[in-house]
Amino acid sequence: xxxxxxxxxxxxxxxxxxxxxxxxxxxxxxxxxxxxxxxxxxxxxxxxxxxxxxxxxxxxxxxxxxxxxxxxxxxxxxxxxxxxxxxxxxxxxxxxxxxxxxxxxxxxxxxxxxxxxxxxxxxxxxxxxxxxxxxxxxxxxxxxxxxxxxxxxxxxxxxxxxxxxxxxxxxxxxxxxxxxxxxxxxxxxxxxxxxxxxxxxxxxxxxxxxxxxxxxxxxxxxxxxxxxxxxxxxxxxxxxxxxxxxxxxxxxxxxxx
Length: 257
What we know:
globular, mainly alpha
């Protein structure tokens, strides 16, 4: 449990520091970045986490390719990542097709700029998927997994890393009620955990937890995070395409899905 506590503390420290410096950063960047104040805290926190991550893994003696899940030879790593990417696309494409078939989501009417939109969405989804997959898998199935795994069994590493992976997806600040000031960051941060108090998020939490378990099993079985990065990137690509070219159908018989 100690490694998990360290990583939770690290994320909390990044968010807290981001909240403290939010107001001066907001004043500095408000004319350059068009981001609502309540989203700036989490985004600043993510930026702070990047250099902080390298300091953290050095402190925990995890600063090596093997510890972070990049230990395989480069050709093998790239091949496994591509295989994972294709598998991720197929898995989510089947799910998206099922949702469309059940009329949970409906295709958008074709537009004149369809091919341009498709090219933009595919390229954006590919880049976003690779970035998200690389960052999240390096953190959760790389450093966090290894920190727990070297002190205990695989079950602990898979389960605990999956719990934190699912939990961080529900840190969602609400819009700020009032003008931005010196204490706005702390005010925003204090309301960022509201989703943990509602049962409506339980199914989404369990789904993300199961995703984490699956990725953790892949990490343990393969001994690296190549396939995990590929899977994650493939999922992100299909999700972006599905959101761009379909819409939800609240009147559908299976809309509760």
